[in-house]
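Bumping my old thread because nobody answered last time. Still need a sequence for this structure:
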């Protein structure tokens, strides 16, 4: 369920799926791309404990400065903020998916919790598929961008930071070739 690269996923569907349409590939950004916000979340979780340890080390009388109910309310809001930060980043990663079916490609983008943008193009409209892998992390962990240029209304689909971009490019290119030359 938390895969970034699913080939022929079982029991998977999406809104707008046509009858007889088969999902061949479901992609998300590579898991490694989540490390930045996970690191920030860990810092947010640990900050109150480090702050308390520093105050204890300095022998500061925190009860004279901060009343316990104030500290409790501050900690409650701090951890609610941290939970919201983690929740929003996870939801954005989990629900931003790229789907390749036997008929079309679909790009589902969620921004925040309340906004989504879904773009699609039939395989017949695909004109060019390229991939880019740049940087040490992308080379080591084998992820990058796949750019699909189409003749449709949306001229370009950018599958950002997906695993095995050369393989994704090959799969889409093969599907387009099969569509054009059955």
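Sorry it took so long. Here it is:
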């Amino acid at each position: 369920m938390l895969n970034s690269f699913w080939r022929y996923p079982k029991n998977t569907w999406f809104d707008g799926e046509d009858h007889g349409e088969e999902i061949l590939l479901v992609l998300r950004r590579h898991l490694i791309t989540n490390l930045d916000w996970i690191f920030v979340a860990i810092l947010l979780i640990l900050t109150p404990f480090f702050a308390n340890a520093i105050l204890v080390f300095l022998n500061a009388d925190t009860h004279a400065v901060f009343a316990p109910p104030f500290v409790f309310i501050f900690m409650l809001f701090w951890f609610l903020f941290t939970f919201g930060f983690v929740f929003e980043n996870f939801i954005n990663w989990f629900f931003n998916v790229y789907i390749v079916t036997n008929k079309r490609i679909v790009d589902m983008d969620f921004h925040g919790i309340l906004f989504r943008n879904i773009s699609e193009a039939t395989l017949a409209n695909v004109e060019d598929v390229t991939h880019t892998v740049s940087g040490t992390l992308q080379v080591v962990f084998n992820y990058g961008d796949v750019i699909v240029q189409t003749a449709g209304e949306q001229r370009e689909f950018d599958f950002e930071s997906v695993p095995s971009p050369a393989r994704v490019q090959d799969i889409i290119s093969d599907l387009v070739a099969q569509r054009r030359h059955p």
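The longest strand covers residues 104-111. Let me know if any region looks off to you.
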